[in-house]
Amino acid sequence: MKSERMNVFLRDGRSMLLAYDQGLEHGPSTDFNDKNIDPSFVMDLAVKGGFNGVIFQKGVAERFYDGKVPLIVKVNGKSALVKGDPVSKQVCSVEYAVSLGAKGIGYTIYLGSEHEAEMFREFGRIQEEAHEKGLPAIAWVYPRGAAVGNDTAKEIVSYAARAALELGADAAKIKYTGDPGSFSWAVKAGAGMKVFMSGGPKAPTDEAFLSQVQGAVDAGATGLAVGRNAWQNSEPLRMAESLRKVIFEGKRVEQVASGLR
Ligand code: FBP
Fold first, then answer.
1. How far apart are CA 97 and CA 105, in angstroms?
2. CA–CA separation, 155 vs 186, rounded Å?
């Protein structure tokens, strides 16, 4: 059953994943400081912060994954240096990801890119291999390229969720639309598939980010897969605690805000 494959990453049907593949996607000078450039720092945060999964590319998983939190290996990737419509191709086999301890397979699809067909085809094969091994296939679906306008519009984000469903993903990681009403349409478009809000660049304040997370959860999302808003925070464990309260305990931002700067 599709829904059961994600169970390893869920607690009471909800989830909080820690993403750390930005070194490849954006380059170290864009996102990292002296602390978070060290993958051990993020591995430790995943454990101590109570995350339900950690997301690495294979090279970081090989050297730094400690087995204490379920692993998702991103099996495709690209750098920020190539211009034009984006394409992200496979860099790690499902079999190798499993040998590293992966309990889930991650793959990015740039919906709307002139290269989307290549990513659809590759994801299709990877999804089948992952399912043969009993692992979920989690699709990052980011509408992008010359044909795509506002990538957080309701129509586009819901299209991303629906594309993930129709391509066979067990879960989709999509951008937040900005309000729970419109995001709930994207969750509905997923028709029961798990929907994760993607974190994005660090929000101006902790409250602003937690409000987005609360909105996504109110809209029916399973939770979030966050990177920069967690490990760029000056107090990442406190942010993780606030996220846990919003996602698992149903606390409102106002209730957790007193613990924030
Ligand atoms: P963030 O929470 O830092 O945005 O991480 C989520 C993520 O999907 C990463 O897995 C990935 O590296 C990054 O966003 C991609 O960002 P971009 O939107 O620039 O492609």
1. 8
2. 8
**Hey, which of 18, 24, 25, 209 would you mutate to test ligand 1's pocket, going by the most ligand atoms within 8 Å of its Cβ?**
25
Block means of pLDDT (10 residues each) for the chain, length 261 residues? 85 98 96 97 98 98 98 98 97 98 98 98 98 98 97 97 98 98 98 97 96 97 97 97 97 82 51
CA-CA distance, 254 to 134, in Å (whole number)?
40
pLDDT score recorded for residue 26:
97
Say yes or no: CB of residue 227 within 6 Å of ligand 1.
yes
In ligand 1, which atom is closest to the CA atom of 74?
A: 10
Report which ligand 1 atom has the smallest distance to the Cα of 21: 12
5 lines ligand 1 (CB under 6 A): no
Residue 257 pLDDT: 75
Select from 202, 203, 147, 212 the least CA-distant residue to 175: 212
Alpha helices by DSSP H, listed for the chain, are 2-5, 22-25, 28-31, 39-48, 58-64, 94-99, 116-132, 154-166, 180-189, 206-218, 228-231, 236-248, 253-257
SS3 (DSSP) at 92: coil
Q: What is the pLDDT of residue 161?
A: 98
The position carrying tokens 């984000």 is 157
Check 20, 142, 159, 176 and give the catalytic one. Answer: 142
- Which among 45, 41, 68, 30 has a CA at the least distance from the CA of 239? 45
Q: What are residue 107's DSSP bridge partners?
A: 139
Q: How many angstroms separate the first and last alpha carbons of the chain?
A: 43
Q: How far, in whole angstroms, is CA 141 from its chain's centroid?
A: 10
